[in-house]
Specification:
The protein has seven helices and no strands. By secondary structure, the chain is mainly alpha-helical. The chain folds into two domains: about 80 residues, Rna Polymerase Sigma Factor, Chain: A (Orthogonal Bundle), CATH 1.10.1740; about 70 residues, Winged helix-like DNA-binding domain superfamily/Winged helix DNA-binding domain (Arc Repressor Mutant, subunit A), CATH 1.10.10. Helix 2 crosses helix 3. The longest helix is centred in the C-terminal third of the chain and has 24 residues. The chain is globular, with a radius of gyration of 18 Å. The mean pLDDT is about 80.
């Protein structure tokens, strides 16, 4: 059984939004997410072989995750700017308050180990099944289920802890 080849534009149109959203959740930065998304499709398109595993989407998520991990390793070697660095964009008080809530939620999410954060985002944000999560992360299906469950529990505990002990 032969299948008709897919053009780059079809591949990109079909999966770019999902890959971008996943990359944004991992990176927490729109510019970095765009870079990861672009590089993911270039790597997928120029790969010597067709995607291995269950689905093209899972294959693309695997590439995006690996790119994010490499970038995070490189970024860890650079010094971060401090809080005193001014934000070039001024926004209304209400938007700042909402952004603080979002930032706090993202900080809690980032407090999870990388693998827990990844499986949780793949399940909750991307709606992937456990088989696809297992294929992307290299876990067994059973381990993927356990990791998602434990990641949810850890995040819930962090949220509850931050509500009872808000930062000063």
């Amino acid at each position: 059984m032969t299948h008709e080849p897919v053009t780059f534009h079809e591949l990109y149109r079909r999966y770019a939004e999902d890959v971008y959203r996943f990359a944004h959740w991992l990176a927490g930065n729109a510019d970095e997410a765009r870079d990861i998304t672009s590089e993911t499709f270039v790597r997928a398109w120029t790969a010597a072989a067709e995607p291995r595993g269950g689905s093209v989407k899972a294959y693309l998520f695997t590439i995006a995750r690996n790119l994010h991990r490499r970038r995070a390793q490189r970024a860890a070697r650079h010094q971060e700017l401090g809080e005193e660095t001014p934000d070039p964009v001024a926004s209304p008080d209400e938007a700042v308050a909402r952004w603080d809530d979002v930032r706090h939620a993202l900080e809690l999410l980032r407090a999870l180990p990388e693998l827990d954060r990844t499986v949780l985002l793949l399940r909750a944000e991307q709606g992937l099944c456990y088989e696809e999560i297992a294929a992307i992360t290299g876990l067994t299906v059973t381990t993927a289920k356990v990791r998602v469950f434990r990641a949810r529990a850890r995040l819930a505990a962090l949220m509850q802890s931050s509500e009872t002990n808000p930062p000063l």
